[in-house]
Design the sequence.
């Protein structure tokens, strides 16, 4: 069995599981964010009184941080009250950051675990060798009630990424290219494993981007074999009691039997990539859109708001001023990242250039607040989606790219190739 | 209330209609059915809510309907707006789960998009696994609902199912 299937089998109390089977799996960690008051409503409606295990539940107030409307504030208040009543200690309020960054920082993510969250980008945590998947509010309510979830065992697709990563090229360029080649439903109901020399060369933070964006190919979960980079990171964070010990058997000779399909990519000659409005798979090399004017440039989210992303932007923009018609929005993915970037001087550099800083949160990624777009505006963003109306007006245009490309474009006031800065 | 026969007029939409278009981010803080219903499909089809007033409609979509964000608001809003079912070539997986959980019938039917016109009448028979197209008198097969999940659908969704059984007993025993 593939490691993901081994994880599922163990969680379902089975010797073996096969793709297509339905199982009921125990959950190691359940995360709820502030978009989902419905979780509490469904929990009560299905007769829920006490949650199955308060130690295995976490709340992160990240999509509406701080609350932009009275209703959002009320939703958060109800979640705080619920967490208090239930004795849920892992409650991260509006000062902490985006859930998918906060969970690993808080030691809540560990190889071999089953992690479910009310957010589609939960696939991010496959980079830690976990089975992590997004679910909806009522599914989550059922987890709070029973500590279990039904799952269809997925087939596994393997994506090998080979070649040396060029200067100025980031994981976001690589994954956008892959999505454009394979399509938005290639991994529907399936899981994606990433491997290959380019993946091994990437930092853990860059691998998170590959796993994060996989949901845009329909993936249920992702997987990257944990290596020294993962163990080094995990040894630095304080672990909570939810950790599970890792005893995944390596595949060995049976390797090719477990994959439904294998795709190979060589990215040595890859140019920076841009996903054009309004589809994440409508991807072209940056050279095809150079000069497209930009009104807002956004660096942030669980896809592109980490230390290296902000560092890259600071290095490109250092000492220069962004043009007056451009708003550069910088939203670090967590309070830890913000503090580190302040210490390292990156925030100062960006503020000096004319950037706008906002509190660690999802920000305008989903069009809720903190940088919503007006009709006719063009935005280039490190986030994950550019559907019509995603960040505000349906008449705004969103271009998705790497943090390097966003920074270069902000500086020029138009879409630009970041490689001239490397 | 579970119905194995569902009839309605076709409201045709394209491929990859994601949950942001089905239920935009700016309304995510709403929780009441009445407030949510009026915003259904707002960014996919202008004035959709006005267009479906007064009659029974079934959304017929291309591939990957409901892809994107996990927001349960998407199938909830569709249900609250009175739409009877969604038929598609394929569904985003979180949307598919959420629809089952809230009691919105979702039906996978290969090749349906090219066989139907906007406004035509169709009848879904969940028991037999068929869709009858009134205009052309054709019958198409649908992908049968997985047995393990049928009990959830028949109960009217996950909440009534768990209220009745308390846990996932049916899935473990099949």
Sequence:
């Amino acid at each position: 069995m593939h490691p993901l299937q081994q994880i599922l089998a163990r969680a379902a109390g089975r010797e073996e599981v096969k793709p297509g089977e339905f199982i009921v799996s125990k959950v190691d960690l359940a995360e709820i964010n502030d978009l989902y008051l419905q979780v509490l409503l469904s929990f009560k409606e299905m007769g829920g009184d006490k949650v199955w295990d308060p130690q295995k539940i976490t709340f992160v107030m990240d999509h509406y941080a701080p609350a932009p409307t009275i209703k959002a504030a009320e939703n958060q208040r109800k979640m705080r009250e619920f967490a208090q009543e239930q004795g849920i200690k892992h409650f991260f309020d509006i000062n902490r950051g985006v859930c998918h960054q906060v969970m690993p920082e808080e030691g809540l993510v560990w190889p071999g675990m089953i992690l479910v969250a009310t957010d589609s980008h939960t696939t991010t945590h496959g980079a830690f060798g976990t089975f992590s998947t997004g679910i909806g509010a009522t599914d989550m309510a059922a987890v709070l009630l029973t500590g279990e979830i039904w799952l269809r065992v997925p087939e596994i697709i393997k994506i090998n990424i080979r070649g040396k990563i060029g200067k100025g090229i980031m994981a976001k360029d690589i994954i956008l290219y892959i999505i454009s080649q394979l399509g938005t439903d290639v991994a529907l109901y399936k899981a994606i494993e990433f491997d290959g020399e380019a993946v091994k060369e990437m930092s853990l933070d860059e691998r998170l981007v590959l796993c994060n964006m996989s949901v845009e190919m329909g993936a249920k979960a992702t997987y990257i074999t944990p290596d020294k980079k993962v163990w080094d990171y995990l040894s630095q964070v304080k672990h909570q009691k939810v950790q599970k010990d890792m005893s995944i058997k390596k595949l060995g000779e049976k390797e090719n039997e477990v994959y439904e399909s294998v795709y190979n990519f060589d990215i040595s000659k890859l140019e920076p990539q841009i996903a054009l409005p309004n589809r994440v798979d409508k991807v072209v090399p940056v050279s095809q859109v150079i000069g497209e004017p930009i009104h807002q440039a956004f660096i942030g989210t669980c896809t592109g708001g980490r230390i290296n992303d902000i560092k890259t932007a600071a290095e490109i923009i250092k000492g220069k001023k962004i043009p007056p018609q451009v708003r550069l929005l910088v939203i670090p993915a967590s309070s830890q990242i913000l503090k580190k970037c302040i210490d390292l001087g990156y925030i100062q550099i960006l503020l000096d250039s004319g950037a706008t800083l906002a509190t660690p949160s999802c920000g305008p990624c989903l069009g809720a607040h903190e940088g919503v777009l007006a009709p006719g505006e063009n935005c280039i963003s490190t986030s994950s989606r550019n559907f019509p109306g995603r960040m505000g007006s349906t008449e705004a245009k969103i271009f998705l790219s790497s943090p390097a490309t966003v920074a270069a474009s902000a500086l020029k006031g138009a879409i630009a190739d970041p490689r001239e800065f490397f | 209330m579970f119905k194995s026969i569902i009839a309605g007029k076709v409201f045709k939409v394209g491929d990859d209609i994601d949950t942001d278009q089905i239920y935009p981010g700016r309304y995510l803080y709403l929780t009441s059915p009445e407030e949510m219903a009026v915003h259904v499909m707002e960014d996919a089809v202008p004035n959709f809510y006005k267009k479906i007033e007064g009659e029974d409609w079934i959304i017929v979509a291309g591939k990957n309907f409901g892809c994107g964000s996990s927001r349960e608001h998407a199938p909830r809003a569709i249900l609250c707006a009175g739409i009877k079912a969604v038929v598609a070539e394929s569904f985003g997986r979180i949307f598919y789960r959420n629809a089952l959980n809230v009691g919105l019938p979702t039906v996978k039917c290969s090749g349906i998009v090219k066989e139907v016109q906007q406004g035509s009448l169709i009848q879904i028979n969940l028991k037999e696994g068929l869709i009858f197209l009134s205009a052309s008198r054709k019958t198409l097969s649908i992908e049968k609902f997985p047995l393990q999940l049928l009990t959830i659908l028949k109960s009217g969704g996950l909440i009534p199912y768990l209220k009745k059984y308390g846990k996932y007993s049916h899935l473990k025993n099949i």
Summary: The first helix of chain B runs from residue 19 to 22. The domain at 5-143 of chain B is CATH 3.20.19.10 (Aconitase; domain 4). Chain B has two domains: 5-143, 145-174.
